[in-house]
Amino acid sequence: MFSVYLVFLFGRRRRLTPSPIQLQTSVAFASSIMGTLALWVNTVGFRFQPSAAAYALPLTWLLLVGGWVFVQNLGLFFGEAPSR
């Protein structure tokens, strides 16, 4: 489901904000995509034995990025000016 969520999130972001994507947003999307790919590779077991560590690292990273985005949006919600 997270793979589908990323596709819809990117499309929704482009619809709501037609301005160019900021570097921090690009880094968040790229790291989320890499984390999702790592989870899929671990699930399939391509070229290595699936393990809990290979599952926990990208999942933890995805949770950290989600928390970071939440805190940024919380600042916007309370009226803080977005950083450029």
Q: Could you characterize what this model shows?
A:
The chain has 84 residues and is an all-alpha fold. The chain has one domain. The protein has three helices and no strands. α1 (2-16) runs antiparallel to α2 and α2 (23-44) runs antiparallel to α3 (52-77). The longest helix has 26 residues, at 52-77. It is elongated, with a radius of gyration of 15 Å. The protein starts with a helix and ends in a 7-residue tail after the last helix. The mean pLDDT is 78.
Question: Strand fraction band?
Answer: under 5%
Structural class by helix and strand composition: mainly alpha
One letter per element, helices H and strands E, the order comes to HHH
Number of domains: 1
Distance between the amino and carboxyl termini: 31 Å
How much helix is in the residues? over 70%
The main sheet comes to:
none
Short summary:
The chain is mostly helical and 84 residues long. The protein has helices spanning 2-16, 23-44, 52-77.
Task: Give the SSE map.
Elements: H1 2-16, H2 23-44, H3 52-77
Helix pairs in contact: 1-2, 2-3
Which key terms come to mind for this protein?
84 residues; mainly alpha; elongated; 0% strand
